[in-house]
Design a protein that fits this description.
It is built from three helices and two strands. By secondary structure, the protein is mostly helical.
Length: 72
C-alpha cells in the first residue's frame, strides 16, 4: 500500500471500531511476523503464495465462530 502498511491500516480500522475479522496476508512466514500480525489486531494470518484451500478453510472457521457466537 502506498501510504500505510497492513499493520497501520488494521490499527486504524480497530481504532475506528471495526470489529469484524481481519485476515493478514503476508509473504513473511517467520514467527515474529505471526506475533506482529496478532498484536496488530489481525484475527488470522495467511502467507503468500495463497493456498486456495487454506483460504477457504480460514473463512469457514471464521463463519463457524461467528455462528457459534450468535447462539450464545
Amino acid at each position: 500500500m502506498p501510504r500505510v502498511d497492513g499493520y497501520e491500516a488494521t490499527h486504524a480500522l480497530r481504532q475506528a471500531g471495526f470489529d469484524k475479522p481481519i485476515i493478514a496476508l503476508t509473504a513473511h512466514a517467520m514467527l515474529e511476523e505471526r506475533a506482529k500480525s496478532k498484536e496488530g489486531g489481525c484475527d488470522l494470518r495467511l502467507t503468500k503464495p495463497i493456498n486456495a484451500q487454506e483460504l477457504i478453510e480460514c473463512i469457514g472457521n471464521l463463519v463457524e465462530k461467528a455462528k457459534a457466537s450468535l447462539w450464545k
